[in-house]
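# nightly structure sweep
# worker-07 picked up a monomer target from the shared queue
# config: single-sequence mode, recycle default, output format = structure tokens
# input follows
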Amino acid sequence: MHEHAPAATPIRLPSTLQGCRERLAALQDEIASIRIQIATTDIRRQTEKKSLDATWFHRAKTALRLKQQELAQLTTHMAKLNAAEPCGHRERFKDALIGVLRADCDDERWQAAVTRAREIEAKQGVQHG
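# output follows
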């Protein structure tokens, strides 16, 4: 009879883009660390003319593979979060700026600013084709 390894714990993905970015950086560091450990151990093994510790190597490669799978899932999750976001940072800033200016301007100044912005946009549209 074969013993099976316990099922891997499901990967918990962050719910925000910032959380994803932080986990992405941590994962990249962890993957680099595992790769360095594997390479260092192999160089030491070769210089000392010893045999490979198969158990350790298998564990290291499994850990590397699991981190790479999490990285792939995280990247896909980040793309979904990016697509689901109604507007990006720049658009949110523009909305906030418009809100501030709208609150500070009377109706006449606001209308003049909107008209001027439309004129600038129309000129840019013609210039860019």
